[in-house]
Amino acid sequence: MVRKITCTAIVIGLVCSSGIVTASNQDSVYAESNAAPVLSFPSSSTGLSVKEKQTITGASIATEEQMLAFARSVNPAFPAELPRLYIEIGNIYGIRGDIAFCQMLKETGYHRFGGIVQANQHNYAGIGATGNSKTNKGNYFQTPEQGVRAHIQHLYAYATKSNLPKNEVLIDPRFKYVARGTAPNWQDLNGKWAVPGKGYGESILDIYSRMLSMPVIPKETIQ
Asked: Which of 28, 50, 62, 98 has the fewest other C-beta atoms within 10 Å?
């Protein structure tokens, strides 16, 4: 049964999108066998256009509390530390940590996994994973912090040609295989991060648009 959740919008002055998209069948790449309930979300009134170019670099807009509330509206057991890690590490690299977080939601099925990549890999972006191959589950990272840093570094490789920020250590084992600077926008990841990848970047931005519609919840109310 599909449950509908109505979210209070916040106004941030972006451009409008429409339609209802189910979370589990549209937002997961490596969670095909996920048996969790399917939830549907009303369209965002933030107005983010998934068709207009949206850069991978830049400052985050969503708050940690907003990100966690959105993730837990689908997966109540979603780890509380991940929004903070995405914002903090994204800021170090000048990467939109809030949108990278939405890419992680898509890739992991809102941290429910269930596909070839498993939760204990801390691999939030399917780095090194090949299709549905059970023999190549992709890379393993020791901690959630390392997993997020590798994800942000991979985006940094696609979006820029710059060296790593000062004092940063390379974690992403596939950084060297990326054609540097070939995907400055989220939509440019189509056919690069995911193959064939039609609409891949747009689907990430759709999740982001819906996340921005979540009310900003005071930090002390989030456990």
From this structure: 50
